[in-house]
Design goal:
heterodimer, A: 395 residues, mainly alpha, five-stranded parallel sheet, 18 helices, 5 strands, B: 171 residues
Chain lengths: 395, 171
């Protein structure tokens, strides 16, 4: 599961990767025509909309790509860097950058790209940007207050707008596609080209079709979590789903025996878990299914994972998600913890009606004494599965 | 190879998009550029005036947030790669050469001053906005960050807003 840093790819190697990514970034920017200021500012004077086309296409391709990766559980979106939102500085900083763009003819990335092929104006632009950063650094006390104002956390745009992720991705992509059409008309007008901007040739038809598929695909890949939550919403489906279970007596036996291969995955609320928990158990919540570290925990071979919750129906729901995700050796505790508590921990001796019941009851008498002791001895301090830190990014 | 022929914008955009996906998948973060200029600037200040750097809030906050040398940084390596990649691409497409590019009615001196002032504004703005066109706008759009998308609209909106006043520089 991505991101591959820091566990699969080490921090040192990550720097080498950075350089390889940079080389590809440089090649693409240069080949797209971003190494000339005249082409870049063409956007603002209507004669060349290359920047807009490359920028938006890259932006929504990447956005849909991340949505797809998330949908298939290939990336833990809790770990990737989401630029934080500081409202005022984002707007004012952006406008200042826009002013710098029309005066200087570059942005930092494109200036590096242009300088690499010998553009003298780009070299001056880079010198200028270092001066700008120096001014910001030296005068920092003057704008530190404003710089840190308007902090809203790191929300995502669809949350801010109150839309679903799919809807937002679709709208943004559709807006980009429309802007291609609109800007082509402007571009042709400014450059005195008479031909219509889009003609019904195979080339444009293919282009349009690809664009349409990408924008509609936003709906085909809902966020992974929503997708599974919807599945377990159907009670008939939950009850008819074939699941392996473990009886309370077998469960008790394995706890007493302290079987290291049986991992208890506890879905009770965290504060209840903190109060008391079974030995060899881990606190889980539904979000953990979609995170990188818990994912590793659930994939150890030869372990049996017993999902426990207060009620069996709750266990069934979580177990279904686990199995649908693809985890193996998932079992549920028959009757849930409520039954376990009533029949084992608070076992009331009664008259056995058969030989089997006789031995079962005898065992329960024993378990009733041993298990509470084990619970007492088990000092678990909360979610045992450690949380990874989000990657720090940005400029 | 034809000297003026550039790649189709949509194809370039899709390739750039895939590169951004790979970047986020591998490193958990997006692309960037201004951060590298910042690292170099900070390193220079720390080397030239170490006492000053130790006493200013900005440098102190930076070293608190980043361990090790400012140059031992993801973005510095990435931008170093951009230099190599763009150079190779220019070599391949026969676009290398020291040229001062400017509008048809602009004097060289004006263009140089414009580039420095524009760069300074961009550098300043990228610090205030926590990232430039790459780090904040493009990468922010990929992860649907509210701040990144707002900055993106502000950059392009701002540029359109001011474009009229600086038209003599370009057309």
């Amino acid at each position: 599961m991505g991101p591959l840093v820091p566990d699969i790819i080490g921090n040192e190697f990550n720097l080498i990767i950075a350089m390889v990514i940079g080389i590809l970034f440089g090649v693409i920017l240069e080949q797209a025509g971003f190494s000339t200021s005249k082409k870049l500012v063409g956007l603002f004077y209507g004669y060349d909309f290359t920047v807009l086309r490359v920028f938006f296409t890259a932006g929504f391709t990447a956005m849909i790509g991340i949505i797809v990766l998330d949908h298939f559980g290939l990336i833990d979106t809790n770990l990737i860097y989401i630029n934080p939102t500081f409202l005022g500085p984002a707007i004012v900083g952006g406008i200042i950058m826009g002013l710098g763009f029309v005066i200087g003819g570059f942005c930092p990335g494109t200036s590096v790209c242009a300088a690499a092929i010998g553009k003298i104006d780009a070299i001056y632009f880079i010198i200028g940007s270092a001066i700008g950063i120096l001014i910001f650094a030296e005068g920092y006390p003057l704008w530190e207050g404003f710089f840190k104002s308007g902090y809203l956390g790191a929300p995502q745009m669809f949350e801010t707008l109150g839309l679903s992720q799919s809807m937002f991705a679709f709208l943004l992509t559709a807006a980009a596609l429309l802007s291609y059409w609109g800007t082509s008309i402007i571009e042709n007008k400014v450059n005195g080209i008479k031909k219509p901007p889009f003609r019904f040739t195979p080339y444009y038809m293919t282009l349009g079709a690809i664009g349409l598929i990408i924008s509609v695909s936003a709906f085909m890949f809902p966020p992974r979590e929503d997708y599974f939550l919807e599945k377990i919403d159907d009670l008939a489906f939950v009850n008819s789903y074939p699941l392996e279970d473990i009886t309370i007596d077998e469960f008790a036996f394995k706890i007493v025996k302290q079987d290291p291969r049986m991992k208890i995955v506890d879905f009770r609320p965290l504060d209840e878990f903190k109060k008391e928990s079974l030995p060899n158990s881990n606190s889980f919540n539904i979000n953990n299914f979609f995170e990188k570290e818990p994912d590793k925990f659930l994939r150890i071979r030869n372990n049996t994972y017993v999902i426990v919750a207060e009620t069996e129906i709750e266990e069934r729901k979580m177990a279904i998600i686990a199995i649908e995700i693809g985890y193996k050796n998932i079992k549920i505790l028959k009757g849930g913890l409520e039954t376990f508590r009533a029949e084992i921990i608070n076992f009331e001796p009664k008259e056995p009606t058969s030989r089997i019941e006789e031995s079962t009851f005898a065992y329960r008498e024993n378990a009733k004494i041993v298990i509470p002791k084990l619970i007492k001895e088990n000092k678990s301090a909360g979610p045992v599965v450690k949380k990874l830190k989000r990657v720090v990014g940005g400029c | 190879m034809n000297k003026t022929k550039y790649m189709n914008s949509y194809v370039a955009g899709i390739l750039l998009g895939f590169l951004l996906i790979a970047t986020i998948y591998i490193s958990g973060r997006g692309l960037g550029a201004s951060g590298a200029v910042k690292s170099v600037t900070i390193t220079t200040v720390e080397a030239v005036a170490p006492a000053h750097a130790d006493n200013s809030t900005f440098y102190k906050e930076y070293s608190a947030a980043h361990s090790g040398s400012p140059l031992n940084n993801w973005l510095v390596f990435e931008v170093f790669g951009v230099l190599i990649g763009a150079f190779l691409s220019g070599l391949y497409s026969d676009r290398l050469g020291f040229i001062l590019e400017k509008g048809p009615n602009t004097k060289s001196k004006i263009r140089i001053i414009g580039a420095i002032i524009g760069g300074a504004l961009f550098g300043f703005g990228s610090q205030l906005g926590r990232g430039c066109t790459s780090g904040s706008a493009l990468s922010g759009m990929a992860v649907m960050s509210t701040g990144g998308i707002i900055t993106m609209f502000a950059i392009f909106g701002g540029a359109f807003l001011f474009a009229y006043f600086f038209r003599k520089l370009w057309i």
